[in-house]
User: Fold this.
Amino acid sequence: MESEQDKENRTPPIEVSNAIKLFYLVLFLGIFSTISGISNLDKIIAQYPTFSPTFYYLIILFSYAFLFFFIYKIRKGRNWARITFFILFVLGLPFSIFTLPNSFTISLINGVLTIIGIILQIIALVFLFQKPSSDWFKSMKIKNTREQQEEEIYQTELIKEKARLQARKEFNQEKKK
Assistant:
């Protein structure tokens, strides 16, 4: 049974909560930008003539699903998700900046939302790497490791119990013969 202390330790610090909220805002702004860009789909396709509209939307859908996955894992206290997201953001930032002028040719709203999204992600990442956040991710790793060990012990005991029951069943069948 989980104690009040364990439940409290699972609750992320305000920095992580704020980062999660900002990531959800980025996700919402991205979806809004995509929907508002539907009327400018011809401009988007003109900039990327090798992309079909279907391919374009599949990439967008995959990107949003990917972002949602990382938000979910970060909220669950997975340090690897925090670090991986940071690395992917840093690697993708030059490409985002490089394509920023194209965002403005699609529409002013699209360009502004792109800039806002980049700024919000930077702020969220700063929150995620502050000391209270880092301490929480470390404590979650310890808890997740302990829970995993407990689950492995439980599974092992379950297997042993099944083997004991099977042996007893076989023994009783032998006695009947």
Remarks:
- Helices lie at 4-10, 14-36, 41-47, 53-75, 79-106, 108-128, 131-176.
- The longest helix spans residues 131-176.
- The chain has one domain: 4-138.
- The mean pLDDT is 86.
